[in-house]
Every structure is written in structure tokens, then in C-alpha cells.
Design brief:
Layout (H helix, E strand, L loop, with lengths): L3 H26 L8 E4 L2 E3 L1 H17 L4 E4 L11 E9 L1 H6 L5 E8 L2 E9 L4 E6 L4 E3 L2 E3 L11 E4 L9 H14 L2 E3 L4 H9 L5 E5 L3 H13 L3 E3 L12 E5 L4 H8 L5
Parallel strand pairs: 3-4, 10-11, 10-12
Antiparallel strand pairs: 1-2, 4-5, 5-6, 6-7, 7-8, 8-9, 12-14, 13-14
Length: 267
Amino acid sequence: MLKKSELSLLLEQTQEIAKEAGAFIRKERQHFNIDKVEHKGLNDLVSYVDKEAEKLIVKQLSKILPDAGFITEEGTEAKAAATLTWVIDPLDGTTNFIHGLPVYAVSIALMEANEVVLGVVYEVNRHECFYAVKGGGAYCNETKIQVSKASSLAESLIATGFPYYNFELIDKYMGALKELMKSTHGLRRLGSAAVDLCYVAAGRSEGYFEYNLNSYDVAAGALIVEEAGGKVTDFKGGRDFIFGRQIIATNHLIHQEFTEKVKPILE
């Protein structure tokens, strides 16, 4: 098990790596050509920027933890490890990046066995670095953050993501959105799960939910939410949100009421 001092050092190093990748992404965006975009699947886009940022991150992380495994979005490295595994999304919000919409982030998490113990999300355009280690609280640019104190959906702003290739649940999903439109301050779709989670952690929204996600979309942000005092579950209220492809994150106070509203997705 990693010691507290080891985690602290790893956190500092991971932040620097995330910022280095973010600087590369920011520079490339200045002269980015949409003709360089590739399609991994229906509406599932990738560019050389994603791939090169991931290579940079993997190379640097391999120096600080040579024996750790990797789960990566673009397949730069897919090495399983018995104990420590990095979970990386080099550019969460690729579609935003491609279109020049300035909401995208670098997301890096470290798992020890089946538990996320470190998370860093660097929002590239706002230069905001959100981070946490297990049991150490959550921070943004050296300032401690916490979830909002809103106690009901009626006081809440909710974030979500829209399905873009798996439309199996779309009708039920739209029903849940309809209920939330009528019972909250409003809905937002930013286009980056990592950013959505960090905004819940920072009290900028009270809840976030989405389905059909991957581990690298949510691993870092989920830890940051929990360390900021929030609650994170799957749609059934369990803990299978890293690999279960569905997540609800809230300020804790509205979690039960919020979960009841999105239940139609499961029925």
C-alpha cells in the first residue's frame, strides 16, 4: 500500500505531467486543422493531439512508477498490473476541442487494486488543476474545494452528457431530462465528464449523471467529488461507477432525490 508521503509526491508529479500535456494541447489548438480528425466509430472522434498527449503522459508516468499498469483511451499502453494502474484520458472533451469549444481537460487517476487513490483533472483553457488523494480532501489550484450546500433539487443546477452513438436508452433518458427540467434550476451539457465531475466538487453544480462512460472518463473526477464531500454511485446506488459505464455524482444532500428522478432510465 502506498504511504501518505508517497501519494503526496506522486500527486505533485502527476499535476506537472497533466499541465505539460495541457500546454501541448493548448498550443496545438492554435493551428488545429479539422481535416486531421479520425473516426473511431459513429461520432467517436480522435485526433493526433489526443494520441500525442497520451504518449507524453504515459512516458512521464512510466518514469515515476515504472511497474504500474495503464488503462488508456487511445491504446498507447494497455499494461495490466496487479497493484497499481494509471487510468488516463489525455483529452476529455475531444469533440469540443475539435470544434474550438473551450471545455476540455486532461484526466489522470491512479488505482491501487480496485480503489482510486489519486486523481488529477487539468482544465486546459481555464488553467484550473483539480486534484485529490484518498483521505486528503480536494483542491483546485492550491485552494481547498467542497460541494455546495443546496439541500433539494429545486435549488440545484444539474449537468449531464447526451448519448452520441449508443441510443438504446434515449427515450427513457429524455424522460428523465424532462423531469429534471421541471424540478431544478436547469440542465447543462458541457461535453467533458471530467470537467462536469470537478464542477460538482467545486460547488458549481449540485449533480451530474451520464451513462455509456468509460473508466478513464470518470476515475479521477469521481475521487475529487468524494474528497470534496460529495457522493458518487452508479444508477442503482452502488459502487460500480468506474467500470459500470454509468454514474451519478452529487453534493450528497440531493443524492436520494436526484436518484429517484433518473430511475426511469433503468425501468
